[in-house]
């Protein structure tokens, strides 16, 4: 079971929850579980083909998942998953 942390801009899709536990052996299975819970959140995290959206960062225990195994990054009990959309400005 992984502990998922969401920034305030994504919390509206999960009834305002800041963090919660999600079952899953990989990042993909955690996101699949989140999709069942909140289809609206899914559309902000992955595209229609199921790939991670380019401007959303997924940190697994502090490491960006794209530097690990991406969606297939293994998770163990107590793994911290932080989902952080990139914010542009100028």
Give a structural overview.
- This protein is an alpha+beta fold.
- Helices cover 24% and strands 23% of the residues.
- The chain has a 5-stranded mixed beta sheet with strand order 2-1-5-3-4, covered by helices on one side.
- A hairpin with a 2-residue loop joins β3 (56-60) and β4 (63-64).
- α2 (27-37) crosses α3.
- The N and C termini lie far apart (39 Å).
- The model has no long low-confidence stretch (mean pLDDT 94).
Which structural class do you get from the secondary structure elements?
alpha+beta
- In whole angstroms, the N-to-C terminal distance is 39 Å
Task: Provide mean pLDDT, rounded.
Answer: 94
Largest sheet report: 5 strands, mixed
Approximately how much helix is present in the residues?
A: 10-25%
Low-confidence region ranges:
none
Number of strands: 5
List the secondary-structure elements in sequence, H or E: EHEHHEEE
Walk across the major sheet and give the strand order. 2-1-5-3-4
Total helices: the number is 3
User: What form results from the Cα inertia axes?
Assistant: globular
Q: Which radius of gyration do the C-alpha atoms yield? A: 12 Å
**Beta-strand share of residues:** 15-25%
